[in-house]
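So, who can interpret the following?
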Amino acid sequence: MLLATGTRLAIQERTALPSPSWRPDGEGHQQPGEGRRVGPSPSLEAHSPVPGQGGDVAHSTWALSSQLLAAIPDPMRKQEVRTGGEAGQGRGPGSPAGQVKALVDLLAGKSSQGSQAPQPLDGVPQSPLGPHGDDLRIQKCREALLNRVKGSLEPGGPSPRLTSLLLLEGLTDLQLKEHDFTQVETTRGDWHAAKTITLDRLFLPLSRVSIPPRISITIGVAGVGKTTLVRTFVQLWARGQVGKDFSLVLPLTFRDLNTHEKLSADRLVRSVFPHIGESGLAAVAPPKTLLILDGLDECKTPLDFNTVACTDTKKEIQVEHLITNIIRGNLFPEVSVWVTSRPSVASQIPGGLVDRMTEIRGFDEGEIKACLEEMFPGDHTLSDWVLRQVQADRALYLMCTVPAFCRLAGSALGHLRHSRPGPQDSGQWTPRTLCELYSWYFRMALGGDGQEKGKVSPRIEQVAHSSRKMVGTLGRLAFSGLVRKKYVFYEQDLKAFGVDPALLQSGLCSRLLQREETLAAAPAYGFTHLSLQEFVAAAYYYGASKRAIFDLFTEGSVSWPRLGFLTHFRSAAQRAMQAEDGRLDVFLRFLSGLLSPRVNALLAGSLLVQGEHQGYGAQAAELLQGCLRPGVAVCARAINILHCLHELQHTELACSVEEAMQSRGLAGLAGPRHHAALAYLLQVSDACAQEANLSLCLGKGVLQSLLPQLLYCRSLRLDNNQFQDPVMELLGSVLSVKDCRIQRISLAENQISNKGAKALARSLLVNRSLTALDLRSNSIGPQGAKALADALKINRTLTFLSLQSNAVRDNGARSVAEALAANRTLSVLHLQKNAIGPAGAQQMGDALKQNRSLKELILSSNSIGDGGAEVLAKALKGNQGLETLDLQSNSISDTGVAALTGALCTNQTLISLNLRENSISSEGARHLAGALCSNSTLKNLDLTANLLHDQGAQAIALAVRENRALTSLHLQWNFIQAGAAKALGQALQLNRSLTSLDLQENAIGDEGASAVASALKANTALTALYLQVASIGTQGAQALGDALAVNRTLEILDLRGNTIGVAGAKALANALKVNSSLRRLNLQENSLGMDGAICVATALSGNHSLQHINLQGNHIGESGARMISEAIKTNAPSCTVAI
């Protein structure tokens, strides 16, 4: 979880004085690790293009490098086979020996003082131009390099994900220890970084006081596009679009370097510049040079930085030692180095030597779709079908964020669609597992799909007959490489494993293994993607295990005899569980998947023997589950076992835990198998992707075992689990991890006290992902509130905080208010039910005068009284940020309301005001009415359960006639009668903004209902009308029915608890026959009887808009209820009924 020791970036900082050659980047802060250099420091003069001692040397060396540049071969082609004849051109006339000697001294870091500056090459005059001047020779060199990498850029330019990299501070435990698939699955395909850096600034300082990085690393999972990124950069540099500070870019791959056992720095350069000869060149180019080392994960020997330092540029040393000395600055100290690597291997370079670390992100949702459309140009039906298939399986869709996997999946599914064109056939065979997908890819490769029609290779049929033998030899090579962490092979490797290079031209092998020429003219071979090597290795192991008598993992070493497939399967499972880096995880998934009947049916006769090992599925599943032993935490290896069971199509364990999650019955599943299954579901379940709801089911032990997986959940609901303070210490440790992805966490209704709140507060000091924290109904008290408030003064990500029902009192409110004065990110704060009085409200009011970020403040069910309302009102006059203020149940009378309404006359931001359950009389209502006449922003006003009576409601009604902003008005339970209802009805005939009116529990009677009904005939804005328990009878219902026959906007009508009877029901039924707007109708408890209910049910046969109707409590009886329910289902299938 935490950054591993030694993997943090260097934190030393070097400053540079401004000079004519210094290039500020415009940023005002420095990133940790920026500007640390190893080796001698470059002088400002050596970098300056102005004439002088350093400038002359730079210009003469640039002239020489211009000739050398034209000799760069193209070592970057990983997807194409290079042809011969790519020998460099542009060798300068005359002997370069003297110039080379001076260049060697300069680039080896030796002082040029006291020595004669090198003379320019014959025919190359000194030029005052910088490295990007208009010198014709330089332009020609760039054009030559551009021609060598042409075609690597997309027609519309490079992808945005390649031109904007994620800026990292170091590697996480997940990146250090886990398989690439596991990294993508665990993080749910969400590449996360606080900052990004564009490609054109990749090697520039991040701040005005730092210098460019010398050692840069770019990481990315297998297949994400690291080599494509390098080729893109080289091409853009050759065009002068990026890396303008570099006079030369030298791209190398570890596939090239692997062909040498020993190398000197001099020979390293001559391997790239063969035209230099034996003159003793000891450095690659001028100081402004970028050395690119692509594919550290393909280096044949791990880098060891504990070797003896070497500064002799002519000394032959091991290649890996040469690389470490270059990185350490013992060789080429002035040359910038850019390394690309898979994440787990990048840790070989000590963090203290790394100045900048970046990561390539994968595809987002739009890019996945665009990739598939590009694969099937002109066939949108096929690309859409393929997209739907990958979206249907969350695990496969997550992996499609990796570009290489996305193309592989697209190819396999496209082949499936072509070979099974019928919807039923293609649906039946749609891959449900990883192994099934790769099986379809294998079938495609075997059939030569994708070759031009009419040009089918004559070897295709031969390949079809000998596929198992071929895969056996390739598989043995793949398996051996997997065990030894070897992913690049050479001809000697092929010969050692009996692979005939001639067969690699076949359709099958060309889709599995790719050939690439190296600088040493020795071709290198690598599987198209790491996962294909794992698939072929699993296929080999699957077939070899039936005849092997010794452990296949020992490669000929002495081992105890192992007989039978299950014995070897157990050995593979044990090896995978023991591999700390997870390199055998996907191999074990494929091995398990090959036992699936569906996979066997797909590959029978080509890769597998029909029915082979098919009786072992259940036993293999039991073996896998036996690997799930009790432990402190559920590790990635354990979760991988669940992936293996999924490949085997033995999903009973995962399904049982998923059902328990849905029924809140997880508390009874306490075994390690269930814990592993729960962790697995947190990764792959669609429901958990949005919110992992683990309420009412977790104990401390289970939570502790799930901590590594909870780290990557976006939303966690852990309510009502009886968690106490020690659990908060655990959660705090998770939230403190740099790589934490949790955005929302709810801990409501637990047993958290001030100590637990303090633990969470400590995590908020460093957490950068959490945006919402819900602690309602705990017992954190004033001290806990203070701890959280102190954290809010520093935290810059939390936007929602609920401390409802935590007894924080005035002291806690005071602490929170102090935090609000400094905090600029919190937008929602819930403090209801906290015994906050006028003193606490005073502090909150003072804070609101300064705070501009808080949008919603909930202070309901406290005791702030009129005094608190007055101080909040003063704050509202100046505050221009608050949009929602909830003061429900706070003992506020007309005095407090008068102050609040005064603020409403000037405030221009408040949208919602809740004054329910206070002591507001008709006088207070008149104050509110006056404010509504002038206020143009308030949209929601809740005056439920006050003392307005008719006089107050009539005053509000007069204001509604003029107001053009209010959309929702709640007047429930205010002793309103027909007079006020008539006034409101008249107001509705003029008002065009009010959409919701609540008059429930007011005795407006038939007269009042008729007045409102008359307004509905003219009103075109109201969509919701609540008239529950309003003393409405038949007459009122008939009036409402007449209105509904005309009205075309009302969607919700609630008449619960009235006495409309059968006649009223008939009137409403007649209206339903013609009304097309009503969506919900509540007629609960209205004495309808059977006749009334039948009338309503019959009327629905012509109504297609009603979605829900409530007929409960109408004395219909069980048999009548069934009959009515069936009638409604028949007449209106889309309408749900409560009866």
User: Anything to note?
Assistant: The first helix runs from residue 44 to 47.
